[in-house]
Design brief:
172 residues; alpha/beta; Rossmann fold; 7 helices; 16% strand
Length: 172
């Protein structure tokens, strides 16, 4: 399964339910393609230019929006760069947080270098920390070097900030 195919499945599953955070680069670009969008939906918050931080944002949102299901979608490189947030999420036991990791064992954002993921049984680690299939999903995907040439999304941090603020205005 390719990353785009996985993101299409995820898009069908989560629909427009609760906030969705995606990691920088190719994951966000392909997520938008999977939704046939040029810009994020009102509940979609791409994390720009800050590798390793999308899970931290999702943990914060899940703590603040206890009545909403918060979904975070990231590659394995992003996940490994922000592994500390995984342990924080485990300690907090956030039932409304769904972590989805697209595992191609590559840092796609920085040229496709291999990650240590294949050597780490992350599903076992997640289970040992108390995560279940309801709140942690690893999807093994194939690496496609051609995906790096997909047109870049022209998102500006200001737009994402405005989208974020507008979302919260409608939640209270």
């Amino acid at each position: 399964m390719t990353k785009l195919e996985a993101l299409k499945k995820i898009t069908e599953e989560i629909g427009n339910k609760g906030p969705v955070i995606t990691s920088l680069g190719i994951t966000t670009r392909l997520f938008l393609i999977a939704q046939n969008r040029d810009k994020p939906a009102s509940n979609h918050f791409p994390v720009l230019s800050s590798m390793g931080s999308c899970l931290a944002l999702a943990v914060g949102l899940a703590r603040g929006l206890v009545d909403k299901k918060v979904t975070v979608v990231m590659g394995d490189g992003e996940f490994l760069m922000g592994i500390n947030s995984f342990f924080t999420a485990a300690r907090l036991r956030l039932d409304n947080l769904k972590i989805i990791v697209l595992n191609d064992a590559r840092y796609a954002q920085s040229g496709g270098f291999s990650t240590a993921w294949k050597k780490i049984p992350m599903k076992n680690v997640a289970h040992a920390l108390g995560f279940s299939g309801d709140n942690f999903l690893e999807m093994e995907i194939s690496y496609d070097a051609k995906q790096e040439h997909i047109k870049r999304t022209m998102l500006m941090p200001k737009e994402v900030k405005q989208n974020f603020e507008n979302y919260f205005k409608t939640q209270h």
